[in-house]
Amino acid sequence: MSAEPDGPEDRLRRFATIWSRAVFAVTSTSSTRTEFEDRLLPLARMLSEALRARAFDADAGRAVGAALVEAHCTDPEALSRTLDCVDAYLVLYCGEDGDREDLRARSARLQHAMAAGFAQALRERTLAEQEAIARAALEAQGAVARALHATEARFRAVFEGAAIGIGIADLEGNVLQVNGALRRMFGLSEQALRGRRVTEWTHPDDAPQTWRLYDELVRGEREHYHLEKAFYRPDGTVLWTNLTVSLLRDADGGPQYQLALMEDTTERRLLNLRLRYEATHDALTGLPNRTFFFERLEKALGAGEGQRFGLCYLDLDGFKTVNDSLGHAAGDRLLVEVADRLQACATAPGEMVARLGGDEFVALTTGPDTERTVDELAGRIMNALLAPISVDGRELTVRGSIGIVEGPAGERSAAEVLRSADITMYRAKSAGGNRFELADPEADARAITRHGLTTALPTALDRGEFFIEYQPLVHLGDGSVRGAEALVRWLHPQHGVLSPDRFIPLAEHTGLIVPLGRWVLEQSVRQAREWRDRHGGAEALGPLRINVNLSPCQLTHPGLVQDTVDILERTGVAPEALCLEVTESALIGADDDLLKPLRRLAEMGVDIALDDFGTGYSNLANLRRLPVSVLKLDRSFTQSMQQFPADPVDLKIVEGIVSLAHSLDLAVTVEGVETGAQAEQLRLLGCDTAQGWYYARPGPPERLHELALADTTA
Fold first, then answer.
1. Dihedral of the alpha carbons of 311, 315, 316, 319, in degrees to the nearest 10
2. What ranges in 53-174 are assigned the alpha helix state H?
3. Would you give the distance in Å from CA 34 to the centre of its chain?
4. Is residue 500 reached through a cis peptide bond, with omega within 30 degrees of 0 on the bond before it?
5. Could you tell me whether strands 175-178 and 545-550 are parallel, antiparallel, or unpaired per DSSP bridges?
6. Which fold has domain 279-438?
7. Are 408 and 307 spatial neighbours (Cβ–Cβ below 8 Å)?
């Protein structure tokens, strides 16, 4: 496997290379492929900058689309391959820093803008060609006029030799003469055309001003007009033309004839329609794509007062398993069948289904009563997925999770609605899937906050936004401070101080827990060294110990032991001054490989504490094989001891745990001590150390050494 590009410029060049390879084969150019790639590179840079710009600007996409036409990429296949390439690779190579969903949405809008720019440039190029033809036609018109006054032979040569269709009619609309080009365009003989009247050539798609302009011309009120007009051929097909009609006057300046010049634009119009379809529809399923869906959604959200919308955001459950086990070809056939079923669910006026990408689909309903119709639509979708789908002789059961957003038009943007639907869909998937959930603004806000914290985590450590508070560990026998537990906090620029439960799960999910945990360990050990140095060594304050929490991810990290050793050696702190706390749930069913790092640390002299003991499902007999020296009893067992008398059942449980721990040479620490009665009861039960608000809340390191110093002077 080749190495990935190292920097942004390398990734940009790679994207341009892929683009040029895809498009070069269908481009009419004398350049080599390398020269063509160099021509695409600045266009790729424009797309990359537009993708990552603070404010989205569609002009860049339109400019790139126009530049493709200028580069002779006018074949429809060139645009189709370009859009496929941008859809598949732009975010991958040019969107390394940013919200993937937002970048995908921007990429889709850029594709739309590129298609629009391509079509506009192609149209302008065509119009330029038409203008050249029109100039030639006007010259022909002048020649015709002169020929009428000069010689019939010269007129006939120009008239019949013209490449565009020419017809002459009187002011009553009777066709007098037509040339060969016009006869071929209509597929009629000269006699058949000369028997027609101009006013008979109406078409339902005629522009409103078509016949008003005609009337003004034959009355002599205008000299000419130009417009796009459709005609029916005898076989029922439609002929689209660029039509220019001019007034011919006699020698005295009076209106005499009307001269029509026609250019056949049928194929060009069909090409534009095809380009529009390819730019707005999914190539695999034929459903409207993300671009088309956003256009419809924005239109629905911009509807008038009293109008509402309902959106169902569907993601198939377990689709990745189909791709991984049966292959992508089977996955594609599954998606096609799902798309057909979904399309059959949204046939009412105001309803549509689109494919956003992958296995994600959306269904939209609009109207005044979407509170009812969107639930019905979601129900039809769920029912449509009940029947198994046959793929390669296998009956596959398909299920889906749906997020529903419903509300009045005009209150939210399309991006906000889709984000809410996406969040709600994942909430349905987290609840087990095969269901639909309604959007909840509070749940959306929590999810958005979580996402914001997740994206901010990687740079928060570099910016120094984390700090540590310390909660004392007190000996229950003599009340002396024996150490402290290090508790990390995040000073977030917007949300203020965040407790570990707000960000530690996110750090574990993203893998940042490893560098964050290493930082907490080093800062805590350094603080332990500072306490010792400031107060004359360990003898002055007693054997202070620092407790640091380890997450399950840190336990499996191969550098745990070496990192710990390096930190202790750099700071000059003895291993006996460090205690690593591991939750009981992290060690449930732990094998020897997982326990090996903890055993090595324990052999060095580092204490291992089993945190939250009693909340998991571990067998008490397993304590014998775990390399732990301390049990930290969960506060749920001791809450009843805050009042007198304590619950006798809790007393028996704690007494039994303490007795078991001591028989295994394990010390017992109790969390959450909040009253003096609770502390005294725990002392009588034989617990060794405790921590909680009764002694001190977590605080800065200075508070701990003040408490410890007070113990030594008491």
1. 160
2. 58-70, 76-94, 100-149, 152-161
3. 33
4. no
5. unpaired
6. Alpha-Beta Plaits (3.30.70)
7. yes
Pairwise CA distance, residues 120 & 113, whole Å: 10
The confidence band for 3, taking pLDDT boundaries of 50, 70 and 90, is very low
Residue with tokens 């009893």: 633
Instruction: Give the tokens for residue 258.
Output: 């009307």
Please, what is the end-to-end C-alpha distance for the chain in angstroms?
69
Single pTM value for the model:
0.54
Helix (H, G, I), strand (E, B) or coil at 350: coil
Strand duo 466-475 + 360-367: pairing: unpaired
Using CA atoms, how far apart are residues 689 and 671, in angstroms rounded to an integer?
9
DSSP code string of 259-280 = EEEEEE-HHHHHHHHHHHHHHH
3-state SS, residue 548 = strand
Q: How many helices (H) and strands (E) does the chain have?
A: 25, 21
Encode pLDDT of 252-269 as tens digits: 889 999 999 999 998 888
Structure tokens at 601: 């640390």
CA separation, residue 475 to residues 261, 325, 329, 708 (Å):
104, 58, 66, 11
Written as six digits, the tokens of 626 are 């775990």
The predicted structure's pLDDT at residue 145 = 58
Q: Which two tokens stand for residue 2?
A: 């080749």
- Which residue do the tokens 């509807």 mark? 303
Q: Where are the alpha helices (DSSP H) in 605-700?
A: 648-663, 676-684
Domain 465-703 listed as CATH 3.20.20.450: yes
Under a CB-based contact definition with an 8 Å cutoff, are residues 192 and 203 in contact? no
Provide CATH code, domain 161-268. 3.30.450.20
